[in-house]
Amino acid sequence: MILVIGAILTICSGITMAVFGYLISRRGLWAHVKSCEQKFGTTEDIVLRSFSYNDLAAATNGFNQVLGRGSFGTVYKGALSNNERAVAVKRLEKVVEEGEREFQMEMRAIGRTHHRNLVRLIGFCNEGFNRLLVYEYMSNGSLADFIFRAEKHPPWSDRMRIVLEVARGILYLHEECEPHVIHCDIKPQNILIDEFWTAKISDFGLAKLLTPNQTRTFTGPRGTRGYLAPEWYQNKPISVKADIYSFGIVLLENLCCRRNIELEVEDDEIILTDWVSKCYRAGELAKLFDGEEVEKKQFERIVMVGLWCIQSESAFRPTMKNVILMIEGNMDVQVPPFPAS
Question: Where is ATP bound in this sequence (predicted)?
Fold first, then answer.
């Protein structure tokens, strides 16, 4: 009898400890999520549509069609209202730390913004440990698809229009929305094109918000190698000029319809920015457009703007407002300093 009672007590004690341990771990994890919400702000002050996880699972047919993958999660194609409206659903996978940070940052960065050259955030799911963001669907893919994968160069006029649309979106982030936003990851893969061939900036998961009257901030490296301004590696304060540098790389890539780094070319052409600078200094810009029908004066002006944007000293880079004026031909473009890298 004593042995039976002892065995029962032992089993009950084990079950109690297991349940208690589980609740403690859940409480600790939930406390971490709550602390993240307190640190980055809740979503209550952002007017967006709230979806349940089941809503979005149904909308994406069980997260069936993948549109793209990133460091924090995967984007799926979906449809709302009986297939009447296509959407892109971003499902964050590293929820507790990086995913929660990205979720809150993206909500705060673009939840209140409204500009024709920014991808619109429609809604979100913040249910338990599920974090999902719902965006308008961009049917014509990314700028990377448009300029890197085409059999021949897309029309010059279309590429210049896209450059200006991206520039206007960045100008809105830097000067017109509140709080001001440093995107931190401007690259062709984050520039999407809608059904009307309008370019829109997407993916604000790495964005940095500036407080009123703040022009610079210290933060760890974020973004994509090949598009990062030198100050990211030099432990210097980061300003909107970091986006200007990234835009300059995108501008030159769009100009030449090739990536900044290509290995299957001549040795002196591997790094696009160096090759463009060399051709400009030598008066050999014809090598860059390779027989394409372009307006040569305009082409030279765009090259000069790009070289200004990628100056190693951030103080030498123009503001996005001046970049737009120079691209449009409404402001004179001075000869950029040499070397520009």
Answer: 90
